[in-house]
Amino acid sequence: MHPEHRGPTVAGAPSTDEQDLQQVLAGVRAGAARLRAVPVYQVIARVDRVVQRWLEPGSPWMENAVQLLGASTGFHPRMLAHALPFQLELLHAAALEDLLRREFGRPSGVDVPQWPTQLVVHVLAGNIPGLAAVPICLGLVAKQATVIKPASGDPLFAQLFHESLCELDPELAAAVAVVSWRGGDRRVENTVFSNADVVVAMGGFDALRSLSAQLGRKLRALGPRLSFAFVGRDVLESEATADAWARAVAYDVSVWDQRGCLSPQLVFVETGGIFGPAEFSELLAAHLQAWLEPLPCRSLTPEEQAAIRAFRDEAEWQPGARLLASRGDLAWSIAIEPEPRFVPTCLHRCVRVQSVADVETLVSLLAPHRAWLEGAGLGVQKERFPWIKALLCSMGVHWVTPLGRMQRPTLEWCPGGRPRIVDWICQ
To answer: 148 lies in which domain range?
Structure first.
């Protein structure tokens, strides 16, 4: 039944009974093997059709997801309606072809007889909703058997997306399964992981350390990362330009409440402009407040509320620091700090604003922490952008983009610096 003919719902995931699991795993292997006979350009076109059905105006699939994910993830429907499409819009046909061209020389490289078909299990993080779309679609394009383990923070999207595949293209859906289990359930994990050729896992250090002990070389780990913003003196020479870039920073902070690995937690303001860190922070504060209406905050747990209060307390008591914060609630917080330091925040629209003398000073600050770097948003004149981007990429930053676009990467972004597909195939 098409989702427009029923209320919000999601089909049940497969049973985790041992025999049922074995059948599911064998089934997705068989489904992927059947895709071997389909030229990759046809697979790409069919994946693209499914994605576009989600992205079309008034899509019942997207509307159903927005209704259901509000309750299961805590995000406001307006945030979901705005940002959930970002997880799908990068999966259009041209982008998928370009990805295969970058990683395999040509898209038809996956059509060769020796192309391996493997069972790839994706253990997802639940920091933001919709993460399942990319591994499902890339797994199909690569003709791999794909098993998705949703996170407790986003238990529904993977099943919703798979349900749309089942209706719109059952042959593609047959190469994908969504299996939910409580992390650490060795009975289920022994079955799933022993059948897997590769396990791609997102998560915190403790979870990844445990999986590494279980899986050894099978594991492709994607751990916590940190992103930042840099605002150059060249865009701080007038209130109009400073305000525009402050709005862009506030937007990147507000989308998904900083819970994405591309969300900026630190804002480095280059000295020498008319607007310094304090003045820029005042503009940033106004825009963080303004974004609350179109992009409301996620509901907070008691632990998250306590973390925000601790962040604010630190800013109030730190010598030379200054706190700007929303009044009467915990919606956003800015710590203006006297010395640059590479320290994460507690997320939830909490940012550190620090001054740096120049780009070279920023690079020196980042150098000891390159293992933790993921993305950078730049607010600079277009003449400076290319060389600053090249410098940051050489420092281990994996996605560099103008501010206001940090949460909308393309498939050119390689999370953790790892290839998107080759990493699953080559061992």
So the answer is: 3-224
